[in-house]
Write a structure and sequence with these properties.
- The structure is a single chain.
- This protein has 244 residues and is of the alpha+beta class.
- It is built from 2 helices and 16 strands.
- The strands form 4 sheets. Strands 1, 4, 5, 9, 14 and 16 form a 6-stranded mixed beta sheet that branches. The chain has a 6-stranded antiparallel beta sheet with strand order 3-2-8-15-12-13, with no helix packed on it. A two-stranded antiparallel sheet has the order 6-7.
- A hairpin with a 4-residue loop joins β10 and β11.
- α1 runs antiparallel to α2.
- The two termini are 12 Å apart.
């Protein structure tokens, strides 16, 4: 190998290494993982004006809940999301004497969040959250007893240090692959969350099954080394053309 070609080779390899470092620093991909999606948070609201009985849709309260209480459960790298089940027959949660099989009609709209949260780790990053929706019979399902529906989405959220929402992106859980990307703020104190959000009426546990579930599994994360190898192959091809 002559000196000119050797110099070109070293320069291209250095460029590939730098490119790989940029990929690792400025772009991250995450997927469905029971070791990272470990947090649960629930907000709840009064029923909306279109419900039966009608409400004002006002925010009531919120707080950290267990993952299983949302309702959600993992089997390996596959998560199943369902309607929120409340095993408390008080009038706070239910309108009693309704037409449901149990006799209890949900009186709240539950906003269940299964998620991962970090501070500082994903700031200034093009963060991609991806997964594969095996099925979704919950999203769009109608509760006939109080005239409400369920929605299910994947999300990435960027919160300021004081938890003011800076930016967010969502995608409906339509069967097949989903992939969403959010370029996050460079503020090192920002809280970055990603996960799943399910909204709909609370239901008595024995009534829940008929409204369906959303089942999502992991997508293998791309290898940065594979990308660098591709760059190296392109660089070597360029060198061969130049050396002819």
């Amino acid at each position: 190998m002559n000196r000119k070609v050797k110099t070109q080779t070293l320069a291209c390899l250095a460029l590939c290494a730098a490119w790989g470092a940029v990929i690792n620093l400025n772009a991250q991909t995450v997927t469905v993982d029971p070791t990272t999606l470990t947090l649960g948070y629930m907000n709840w609201y009064d029923l909306p004006p279109t419900a039966n009985p009608p409400g004002d849709g006002a925010y009531v309260s919120g707080g950290a809940w267990g993952v299983g209480d949302l309702t959600s459960s993992f089997s390996g790298s596959t998560v199943t999301l369902g309607p929120n089940e409340i095993n408390d027959s008080s009038s706070y949660w239910y309108s009693s004497g309704g037409a449901s099989p149990s006799g209890y009609v949900g009186a709240k709209i539950m906003d269940a969040n299964l998620y991962n949260e970090t501070a500082g780790k994903y700031v200034g990053t093009a963060l991609t959250f991806t997964g594969y929706v095996l099925s979704n019979t919950l999203g769009g399902s109608v509760n006939p007893w109080n005239n409400t529906t369920w929605s299910t989405v994947a999300f990435i959220k960027d919160f300021s240090p004081s938890y003011s929402l800076v930016n967010t992106v969502t995608a409906p859980l339509t069967p097949g692959m989903f992939s969403i990307t959010l370029t996050t703020s460079s503020n090192p104190g920002d809280h970055i969350q990603y996960g799943f959000e399910t909204m709909g009426s609370d239901v008595w546990p024995t009534d829940a099954g008929q409204f369906g579930t959303a089942v999502i599994t992991a997508v293998p994360e791309p290898s940065a080394l594979a990308l660098v190898s591709l760059g190296g192959a392109m660089a070597l091809s360029f060198i061969r053309r130049r050396s002819k």
